[in-house]
Every structure is written in C-alpha cells, then in structure tokens.
C-alpha cells in the first residue's frame, strides 16, 4: 500500500512513527507541506520523500490513501480533492469546523473509505463503564 502524509505540523510525529513501524506493509510515497520550514524540520526526523505540490499526490494513481493531518478548516477541500481522485482517507479529528461542513465532507467521501483518528479510545477515561 502506498500512502501520503498531508500536513507536517504538530499531529504528524505519531503518524510518521507508526508508518515506520508498518514499513513492511506500507510505503510512504509523499510527505506534503506548503511550508519549506515544516518540510525541513520534518526531514530532520523522518526519511520520507517530501513534496510541496499537492497536485503531485492527487494525480499519482499509485497512491492508495492519504493521512490528512491539517487544521480542521482545511479538511473539506482536501477530502473533496482526494476522494474525487479515488484515494482512501484517514482524517485527524475534528472532522471540520461546523456540522454543515462535516456533513458535506462525509458526502464527498462516500465513494472511498473515510477513517477518523480517535487515538484516546483505549484510555480508561474514554472507556464506557457500566
């Protein structure tokens, strides 16, 4: 499976580490940020191919999925681009900044698999108690 990281800010480190653990099964083909500084800092820690061109990822038919790790107000537009290109999506929470935008996002992703990160679900405070 080939994936791309979209956004190299504060949410990227645990995802990148997990992808290193999965390197026998998953290849990171791109790590994208429009910021040269973020790409530089990311490259100091991780040896993934970098790009400043979102279109390169959208147009690359070998990419199976993207991990969108950007601020919530960017999610709708990014999901629309990647879902239209047939790429499955793992999205950092929250979905979007309003319920209406979140509903639009889900509709845009109806033909691909859309996963939402819920990384605290196994902590005791998040578990359902009876």
Helix-strand layout with pairing:
Elements: E1 2-6, H1 12-21, E2 27-32, H2 36-45, E3 50-51, H3 54-59, E4 65-68, H4 75-84, E5 88-91, H5 99-108, E6 114-116
Parallel strand pairs: 1-2, 1-4, 2-3, 4-5, 5-6
Helix pairs in contact: 4-5
How would you describe what is shown here?
The protein has 130 residues and is of the alpha/beta class. The protein has one domain (2-126): Rossmann fold, CATH 3.40.50. Helices cover 35% and strands 18% of the residues. It contains five helices and six strands. The chain has helices spanning 12-21, 36-45, 54-59, 75-84, 99-108, and strands at 2-6, 27-32, 50-51, 65-68, 88-91, 114-116. Strands 3-2-1-4-5-6 form a six-stranded parallel β-sheet, sandwiched between helices. Helix 5 (99-108) links the parallel strand 5 (88-91) and strand 6. It starts with a strand and ends in a 14-residue tail after the last strand. The model has no long low-confidence stretch (mean pLDDT 93).
């Amino acid at each position: 499976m080939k994936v791309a990281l979209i956004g190299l800010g504060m949410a990227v480190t645990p995802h990148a580490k997990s992808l290193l653990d999965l390197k026998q099964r998953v290849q990171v083909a791109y790590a994208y940020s429009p910021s040269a500084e973020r790409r530089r800092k990311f490259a100091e820690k991780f040896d993934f191919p970098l790009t400043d061109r979102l279109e390169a990822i959208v147009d690359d038919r070998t990419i199976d999925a993207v991990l969108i790790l950007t601020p919530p107000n960017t999610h709708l537009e990014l999901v629309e681009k990647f879902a239209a290109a047939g790429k499955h999506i793992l999205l950092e929470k929250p979905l979007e900044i309003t319920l209406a935008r979140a509903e639009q996002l889900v509709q845009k992703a109806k033909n691909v698999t859309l996963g939402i990160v819920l990384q605290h679900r196994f902590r005791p405070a998040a578990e359902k108690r009876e």
